[in-house]
Write a structure and sequence with these properties.
This protein has about 90 residues and is mainly alpha-helical. It is about 85% helix and about 0% strand. It has one domain: Chorismate Mutase Domain, subunit A (Up-down Bundle). The chain is built from 3 helices and no strands.
């Protein structure tokens, strides 16, 4: 039982770090939205998304997690695009 608690406590610590990093990433996505709006650049950049996924998949030590990591980044980038679209709409008002 102690091992389970230790693992869960460690996951809680990691989750706190993930929340902070997620928030920082979303704030940067909004700054990118400003740049894209100012320079009339579309939100979607498929080449950049593929590059991000490939670069991060290559960082994996345990390649068994590659499929899950790809899904994780795809979902996170979709969330970033959603936040950018919200910002675009606010800027148009």
């Amino acid at each position: 039982m102690d091992d389970l608690k230790i693992c869960r406590d460690k996951i809680d610590e990691i989750d706190a770090q993930l929340v902070a990093l997620f928030e920082e990433r979303m704030e940067l996505a909004l700054k990118i939205a400003d740049y894209k709006k100012t320079n009339n650049i579309p939100i979607l950049n498929e080449g950049r998304e593929k590059e991000v996924i490939e670069k991060n998949a290559n960082r994996l030590k345990n390649k068994n997690f590659k499929e899950s990591l790809v899904k994780f980044f795809e979902h996170m980038m979709n969330l970033s695009k959603e936040e950018q679209e919200k910002k675009f709409k606010k800027l148009l008002r």
